[in-house]
Design a protein that fits this description.
Rossmann fold, alpha/beta, binds inosinic acid, 3-stranded antiparallel beta sheet, 3 helices, about 180 residues
Amino acid sequence: MQDYHEFMSEILIDEPTLQQRVKELGAKINHDYAGEELLLICILRGALPFLVDLMRHVTVPNAIDCMAISSYGAGARSFTGNVRVNLDLQTNIEGRHVLLVEDIVDSGHTIAHVLEMLNTRRPKSLKVCALLDKASRREVVVPIDYRGFAIDNKFVFGYGLDIDEYYRNLPFIAVVDLSKYQQPN
Ligand code: IMP
Ligand code: MG
């Protein structure tokens, strides 16, 4: 695995800024769901650090579950719009307030597909919390009820976001210079 310093062009969102925003999102969620119970759904694997940090600011009664989604064959840089469920929820969401927690909304196909699928299970409410919003890349309209940051059309990594499955552990979000990145064997 290549040292990220070799291909990182800039740190886009540093750790204190991320943590501050996550705290603010938690406060907003607590306000909006006051008196209710909430099911937080982590869209694996990218939303993992975000959900873990976010849930520690959620004070309304809550439970968590996970689901894993992928696009057929291609990676995110050549996304086709075909979405597959690799791991479904363990929880029956009927009659429950559900909040989808996602790392980034890019084309919008992933979230659009998940919303369509989960709505058929008749949750009491179904909303989206996305850390990052790359609005200029949107191909389908999707609602984002809680948005961390709007970002430009750059490929980013860290804080859950991967390049070829690596670098998810970094506590900040950085931009990759793809001309300097070498794919692992
Ligand atoms: P969608 O295009 O909105 O369906 O997003 C598909 C998925 O692509 C996201 O959930 C991310 O996992 C991934 N993705 C999109 N943009 C980036 C990026 O800049 N870095 C890392 N992963 C990304
Ligand atoms: Mg993802």
